[in-house]
């Protein structure tokens, strides 16, 4: 979702700037830095649990304040939306699922406001390929997070039906339930240079499995026209569970996701 090279360059530039000039820095970048520190604090060992919680809360409060200084509600940007995705995951990891649900609702509408649910080759045909790819990835991050939250809280997904298509150009959502608010395609998601060769296939499988879960959350029983998709997505879920189990022994988030995905097998 976040291009690593670009972020690291912006991060180095921020700290190389004179202290007197940092006040003019894009506040959404400051918010992103603080939310990363907050999430990192959740997974490090500190002398006491209380110190760990207080430190994480300090960083996440600073991130919220920076977003407010950026006026994120009135002028959404790619970076502010990326930051909001991370804040939502922080709230989920901090056992504040209800807060995460409410915040994610704002996030979803911010994504719509930027047109991230539309294929960038249609709405921004003159954009650079890297910008198009970034828009696709951020939208998929927002969509999958919304679905995962729906599973946890057992409420309908904010973004409803999805018309993302398979590499064979077949809709993963059956025709009676298709929506027109998104036309971003899975096969257009290519990985950044340097990513593991197998990561692209795993990423696609995860997206397809989340689409299946989105349908199940809405209590739509698989009909005859969903059987093939259901079986295919079930296989993808099994693959994702296997991948997550490799790190679940030491990773609480991975264990949680294994439990959630396994409940649909």
Concise synopsis of the structure shown:
The chain has 265 residues and is mainly α. The protein has helices spanning 4-16, 27-41, 49-70, 78-93, 97-113, 120-123, 129-153, 199-217, 227-248, 252-262.
Principal-axes geometry comes out as globular
Indicate the low-confidence ranges by residue numbers: 161-167, 171-180, 194-200, 219-226
Tell me the span between the first and last alpha carbons. 28 Å
Q: What percent of residues are in strands?
A: under 5%
* Helix-strand string: HHHHHHHHHH
Q: What is the helix tally?
A: 10
**Radius of gyration, in angstroms, nearest whole number:** 19 Å
Largest sheet: none
Count all strands and give the number: 0
| Estimated helix fraction | 55-70%
Structural class by secondary-structure content: mainly alpha
| Average of pLDDT | 76
Question: Could you outline the blueprint of secondary structure elements for this entry?
Answer:
Blueprint: H1 4-16, H2 27-41, H3 49-70, H4 78-93, H5 97-113, H6 120-123, H7 129-153, H8 199-217, H9 227-248, H10 252-262
Helix pairs in contact: 2-3, 2-4, 3-4, 4-5, 4-7, 5-7, 7-8, 8-9, 9-10
Provide an overview of this structure:
With 265 residues, the protein is an all-alpha fold. It has ten helices and no strands. Helix 4 (78-93) runs antiparallel to helix 5 (97-113). The longest helix has 25 residues, at 129-153. The protein starts with a helix and ends with a helix. The relative contact order is 0.08. Residues 161-167, 171-180, 194-200 and 219-226 have low confidence and may be disordered.
